[in-house]
Amino acid sequence: MNKLMVLHRRLSCCDAFLADWGVSVASLAIRCYVGWQFLKSGMVKVQDWNATLDLFRYEYMAPLLPPELAAYMGAAGELLLPMLLFIGLLTRPAALALCAVNVMAVLSYPQLFTFDCPAAINDHFYWGALLLVVVAMGPGRLSLDAWLARSGR
After folding, report:
1. Angle at which helices 2-47 and 119-137 pack, to 10 degrees?
2. What pTM was estimated for this model as a whole?
3. pLDDT digits over 40-67, tens only?
4. If we measure between CA atoms, which residue out of 85, 102, 98 comes closest to residue 143?
5. Alpha-carbon distances of 2 from 9, 11, 13, 118, rounded to whole Å
6. Is residue 82 included in any domain, yes or no?
7. Contact assessment for residue 99 and residue 85, using Cβ atoms and an 8 Å cutoff
8. What is the count of structural domains for the chain?
């Protein structure tokens, strides 16, 4: 019976190790995938800033913000927050902030709900859900947050 208990403890430790690393790899994959989606959007915005400003002035209807400020904030969020996700620094706040950028994008462009192809709005829901998974799971071991916590900084 004693050997069976030792074997059970070893397997439990192995399960915990695999689960911990599985969560870490999943978190990294989600962070990179969703971060890349937003980074691409931010890069498009800065490639033609005049077109971006026109979109925010005449197409997007950001609530409570002047169009120019909304354009700057949207582009900054889409460029900086994914970088934090990629390296896993301030991961939960960055994921939550990117979730807010995502919600603002959906609220500012209600035409997403009227497209014949629902892929555009579904993508936003999917990205939002994945960002909330990162908020709930955390960055995992493969992050600067975890390294800083281990080093006591």
Report:
1. 130
2. 0.83
3. 999 999 999 999 999 999 988 888 889 9
4. 85
5. 11, 14, 17, 59
6. yes
7. no
8. 1
Residue 104: inside a domain, yes or no?
A: yes
Q: Which residue has the tokens 């959906």?
A: 106
Lookup: tokens for 147: 């390294």
Look at residue 71 and tell me if it is in a domain.
Answer: yes
Angle between helices 67-87 and 91-108 (to 10 degrees): 150
> Six-digit token pair at 108?
């500012």
Those residues whose C-beta lies under 8 Å from the C-beta of residue 65, and which sit 6 or more positions away, are: 73
* Residue range of the domain that includes 120: 25-151
d(C-alpha 16, C-alpha 141), whole Å = 13
User: For residue 55, what are its two tokens?
Assistant: 């979109």
For residue 12, being part of any structural domain is answered with no
Question: Are the beta carbons of 39 and 79 closer than 8 angstroms?
Answer: yes
* pLDDT tens by residue, 70-113: 999 999 999 999 999 999 999 999 999 999 999 998 888 878 77
